[in-house]
């Protein structure tokens, strides 16, 4: 009884507060740019903050891993999105194909970003790159015993390999690049071989695979390059330093096409309301300061040729040969890759 | 007579319009299903579809079964028996409800994995040194997911079963005892059949939560249908195909619910006058006392105590890095949004349930309401797309109209606002509030309505003066459950929210999705703590339903 009364009392108050908070959402006046991001906000916030400090332009952001492309598509010409940032080439390809982007002509971007990491027509721009590399146990796998992605299917590694889900976008892009090189039939054979070599059902994230090597669950794992930097510097969770120290890094296929590469990137939305500010932000993100921050904080490879990689990354990874296969080709093969994963029952 | 029919018609039409609006997102998903970018079923049927279906069925059967066993047995024990700790367990058994399923999955993986404290201790104790030396059950399996989901979902059944036990005539109970039934026989033959409608509602909520879960199954690498939905949508770039799988899932849910309803059509119960007599509880003796305590203790420890303690530990250790002034705003967002959703959803549920009661020819309304209730079974992100489509269509239509005739642009009025999030919550959780209100309303004998109306009250007065006092408990229960569910809601909030807007759940997610449990612990703990308030209120409401009046 008393409770119901209390709720009765608070009801108008709650509505008022809610209405006030809606009314308080910022309107025009200030210079701003609106970002929809499929990349975790905490990974890019430092760079966005630096941008605001330098230009005075406020950056508004929404982060969601999925669903934002559909939101932009349905909001159509009234959308508030100026930029869409993604952690992978896949969503970039999808949104460009849906015709929701517009081309940018900017000498700054052309100078900052090498041509392989941007759309020749200017619809998308890579901001950072990373390689999908092979981690091997220092104790149990001789250096040089594995040289290529293709080697992962070699039956001598039966029960020795760990990976995250075959459906994860990082693995799909790798499989898509295999399809581009070897064709579907041979890639299927390869994937079956890898599946037969798995130590356990695909699970966890990339770090969890390195951890599994440390724990002796398996000897070989696939993982993105920057995770090594994140683990070896993890003072907060020192056990991750031990994981990183238990493995060797291997950039595959150095004798032929090079290691598989992917990018995080950005597109300008067709109906952007703050086009000038949005271009400024992209230019900033590809510029020396942001690129340096990406390299130092996230251990990604800067796309800008003049920006040094993190010294730590240089120490452990040195120089390597990247695969120059077009990212658009990789993205186009992802649906096929996903079906192959189903076909060989990779995740079962 | 004529006048009363017109009034009823007004209720009917009003309810119908509301039901249609709430049904829009589900309808949008069906609409999407008409336009797949390619036919996905050939590929699916040949490859993973059998696995998806079998896994989903197993998950639903096991989670449902385990939740019934835990929920019904504990509800009966705390209601009908006396044993040490009974009064404490009455509300403690509800607490796991405040823990989000994805959080409990993270917590137990952390505890039970190879490097976790449990296995490390075992290794030290027995002198094992590696993975190959011993066998330990893997938490990231179907069994693990069943345990995780059951231990936070059983409170739905516990709550509704307990309310049913409390509301039933204790004379029947007493009669069964005079006829020589043992406590257990009386439970099986009297309590259980009478509580069946409540248990069925609870079970359907549990099943829908299980079928739409993505966080846990994804984390545990379980191949369920919702994994298939996201895979088809995002990796095969086929939203239409994904909507088809989701529609298939919904049809499946409809069949289940219908079957249950048909099997129950002949049962009809109204409360008799002796409803509020004090209960004579069975005094449990000897080992039975301890067993009863243990049965109630286990779900509490697994579903609440362990995750709560571990989260507290992490939150304490990482307090300085995790705490920020934003936290107060974020917690405030969560609280206000959930409260507003709880109130709105209950109001809609009340209008719908009461209109159904008023209208004799209600076939159409009934179908519309059932359809609107389906939002609960949709995976959150799919529901979000279902909200985006009608909202954006509305905004763009109004905008074009205003531009054409008045030369002004209204832009996005609904899309990307807090209202969109709120609407998604209402669609998502209407089933919860509606189930609760409807079942309370159904227990009031129609003679009450007739008496009130013959005394000159109109329908609205009857609702406020006669029904409301009787179903207040039901409404409040529904509202509180919706509140807690909204606090935990993640996928729809992520996609629909405005710029620079976080709830506790989205804040936790950005770290947790990177498997940074320590950094996300403080936020997760706050979700649980804020969720505790309504859970405790809830328990008091249920208990009070027996004592007051």
How would you summarize the topology of this molecule?
The complex is a heterodimer of chains A (348) and B (549).
Chain A lengths: L1 H22 L8 E6 L3 H15 L2 E6 L4 H8 L7 E4 L2 H9 L3 E2 L4 H6 L11 E14 L23 E2 L6 H14 L1 H14 L8 H10 L4 E5 L1 H7 L5 H8 L1 E4 L10 E9 L5 H11 L2 H11 L2 E2 L8 H7 L9 H6 L1 H10 L5
Parallel strand pairs in A: 1-2, 1-3, 6-7
Antiparallel strand pairs in A: 3-9, 4-9, 5-7, 5-8, 5-9, 5-10
Chain B lengths: L1 H31 L8 H6 L2 H32 E2 L3 H7 L8 H12 L4 H10 L15 H26 L2 H9 L4 H30 L2 H5 L5 H11 L3 H24 L19 E2 L3 H31 L1 H4 L3 H33 L4 H10 L7 H27 L11 H25 L3 H9 L4 H30 L2 H6 L7 H9 L4 H31 L2
Parallel strand pairs in B: 1-2
Helix pairs in contact in B: 1-12, 1-15, 1-16, 1-17, 3-4, 3-7, 3-9, 3-13, 5-7, 5-13, 7-9, 7-23, 8-9, 9-12, 9-18, 11-12, 13-23, 15-18, 15-20, 17-18, 18-20, 19-20, 20-23, 22-23
How is this structure best summarized?
Chain A has 348 residues and is of the alpha/beta class. Chain A has helices at residues 2-23, 41-55, 68-75, 89-97, 107-112, 169-182, 184-197, 206-215, 226-232, 238-245, 275-285, 288-298, 311-317, 327-332, 334-343; strands spanning 32-37, 58-63, 83-86, 101-102, 124-137, 161-162, 220-224, 247-250, 261-269, 301-302.
What features would you describe in this structure?
The complex is a heterodimer of chains A (348) and B (549). Helix content of chain A is 45%, strand content 16%. Chain A contains 15 helices and ten strands. In chain A, strands 1, 2, 3, 4, 5, 6, 7, 8, 9 and 10 form a ten-stranded mixed beta sheet that branches. In chain A, β1, α2 (41-55) and β2 (58-63) form a beta-alpha-beta unit. Chain A is globular, with a radius of gyration of 23 Å. Chain B is mostly helical and 549 residues long. Among the domains of chain B are: 1-22 and 330-377 and 429-543, MetI-like (MetI-like fold), CATH 1.10.3720.10; 59-222 and 290-313, MetI-like fold, CATH 1.10.3720.10. Chain B is built from 23 helices and two strands. Chain B has helices at 2-32, 41-46, 49-80, 86-92, 101-112, 117-126, 142-167, 170-178, 183-212, 215-219, 225-235, 239-262, 287-317, 319-322, 326-358, 363-372, 380-406, 418-442, 446-454, 459-488, 491-496, 504-512, 517-547, and strands at residues 81-82, 282-283. In chain B, α3 (49-80) runs parallel beside α7, α7 (142-167) runs parallel beside α23 and α17 (380-406) crosses α18. Chain B is globular, with a radius of gyration of 24 Å. Chain B starts with a helix and ends with a helix. Chains A and B meet through α1, β2, α3, α8 and α15 of A and α2, α11, α15, α17 and α20 of B.
């Amino acid at each position: 009884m008393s409770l119901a009364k209390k709720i009765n009392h608070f009801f108008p108050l709650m509505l008022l507060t809610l209405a006030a908070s809606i009314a308080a959402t910022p309107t025009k006046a200030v210079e701003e740019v609106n970002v929809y991001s499929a990349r975790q906000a905490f990974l890019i916030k430092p760079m966005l903050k630096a941008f605001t400090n330098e230009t005075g332009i406020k950056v508004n952001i929404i982060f969601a891993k999925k669903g934002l492309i559909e939101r932009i598509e349905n909001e159509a010409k009234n959308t508030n999105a100026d930029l869409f940032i993604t952690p992978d080439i896949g969503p970039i390809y999808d949104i460009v194909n849906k015709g929701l982007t517009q081309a940018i002509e900017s000498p700054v971007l052309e100078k900052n970003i090498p041509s392989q990491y941007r759309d020749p027509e200017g619809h998308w721009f890579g901001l950072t790159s990373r390689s999908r590399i092979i981690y091997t146990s220092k104790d149990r796998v001789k250096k040089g015993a594995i040289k290529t992605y293709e080697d992962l299917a070699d039956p001598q590694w039966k029960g020795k390999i760990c990976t995250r889900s075959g459906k994860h976008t990082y693995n799909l892009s790798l499989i898509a690049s295999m399809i581009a090189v070897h064709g579907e039939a041979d890639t299927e054979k390869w994937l079956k071989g890898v599946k037969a070599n798995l130590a356990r059902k695909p699970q966890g994230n990339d770090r969890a695979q390195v951890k599994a090597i440390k724990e002796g669950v398996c000897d070989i794992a696939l993982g993105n390059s920057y995770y090594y930097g994140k683990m070896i510097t993890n003072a907060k969770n020192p056990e991750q330093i031990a994981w990183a120290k238990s493995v060797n890094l291997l950039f595959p296929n150095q004798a032929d096409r090079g290691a598989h590469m992917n990018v995080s990137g950005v597109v300008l939305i067709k109906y952007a309301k703050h086009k000038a500010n949005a271009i400024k932000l992209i230019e900033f993100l590809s510029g020396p300061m942001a690129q340096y921050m990406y390299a130092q904080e996230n251990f990604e490879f800067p796309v800008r040729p003049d920006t040094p990689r993190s010294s730590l990354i240089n120490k452990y990874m040195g120089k390597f040969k990247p695969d120059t296969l077009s990212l658009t080709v990789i993205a186009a093969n992802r649906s096929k890759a996903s079906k192959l994963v189903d076909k060989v029952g990779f995740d079962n | 007579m004529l006048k009363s029919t017109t009034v009823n018609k007004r209720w009917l039409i009003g309810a119908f319009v509301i039901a249609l609006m709430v049904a829009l997102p589900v309808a949008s998903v069906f609409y999407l299903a008409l336009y797949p970018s390619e036919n996905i079923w050939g590929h699916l049927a040949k490859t993973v579809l059998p696995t998806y279906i079998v896994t989903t069925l197993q998950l639903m059967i096991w989670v449902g079964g385990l939740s019934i066993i835990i929920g019904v047995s504990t509800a009966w024990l705390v209601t009908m028996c006396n044993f040490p700790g009974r009064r404490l367990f009455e509300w403690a058994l509800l607490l796991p409800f405040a823990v989000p399923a994805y959080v409990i999955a993270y917590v137990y993986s952390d505890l039970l994995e190879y490097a976790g404290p449990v296995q490390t201790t075992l290794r030290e104790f027995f002198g094992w040194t590696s993975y190959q030396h011993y066998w330990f059950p893997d938490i990231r399996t179907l069994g693990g997911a069943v345990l995780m989901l059951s231990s936070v979902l059983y409170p739905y059944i516990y709550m509704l079963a307990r309310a049913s036990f409390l509301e039933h005539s204790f004379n029947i109970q007493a009669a069964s005892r005079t006829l020589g039934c043992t406590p257990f026989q009386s439970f099986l033959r009297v309590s259980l059949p009478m509580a069946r409608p409540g248990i069925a509602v609870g079970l359907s909520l549990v099943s829908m939560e299980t079928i739409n879960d993505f966080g846990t199954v994804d984390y545990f690498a379980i191949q369920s249908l919702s994994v298939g939905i996201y895979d088809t949508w995002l990796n095969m770039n086929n939203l239409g195909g994904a909507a088809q799988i989701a529609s298939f899932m919904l049809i499946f849910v409809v069949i289940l619910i219908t079957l249950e309803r048909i099997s129950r059509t002949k049962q009809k119960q109204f409360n008799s006058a002796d409803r509020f007599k004090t209960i004579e509880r069975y005094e449990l003796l000897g080992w039975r006392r301890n067993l009863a305590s243990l049965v109630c203790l286990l779900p509490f420890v697994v579903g609440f105590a362990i995750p709560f303690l571990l989260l507290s530990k992490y939150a304490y250790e990482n307090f300085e890095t995790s705490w920020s002034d934003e936290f107060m705003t974020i917690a405030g967002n969560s609280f206000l949004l959930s409260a507003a959703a709880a109130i709105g959803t209950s109001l809609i549920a009340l209008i719908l349930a009461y209109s159904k009661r008023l209208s004799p020819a209600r076939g159409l309304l009934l179908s519309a309401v059932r359809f609107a209730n389906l939002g609960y079974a949709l995976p959150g992100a799919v529901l979000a797309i279902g909200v985006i489509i009608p909202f954006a269509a509305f905004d763009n239509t109004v905008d074009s109209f205003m531009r054409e005739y008045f030369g002004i642009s209204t832009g996005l009025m609904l899309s990307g606002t807090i209202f969109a999030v709120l609407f998604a919550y209402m669609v998502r959780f209407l089933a919860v509030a509606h189930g609760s209100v409807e079942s309370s309303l159904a227990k009031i004998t129609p003679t009450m309505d007739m008496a009130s109306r013959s005394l000159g009250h109109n329908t609205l007065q009857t609702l406020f003066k006669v029904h409301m006092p009787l179903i207040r408990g039901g409404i409040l229960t529904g509202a509180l459950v919706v509140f807690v569910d909204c606090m935990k809601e993640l996928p729809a909030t992520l996609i629909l929210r405005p710029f620079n807007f976080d709830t506790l759940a989205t804040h936790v997610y950005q770290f947790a999705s990177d498997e940074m449990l320590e950094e996300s612990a403080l936020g997760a703990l706050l979700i649980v703590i804020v969720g505790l308030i309504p859970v405790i209120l809830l328990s008091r409401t249920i208990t009070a339903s027996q004592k007051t009046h």
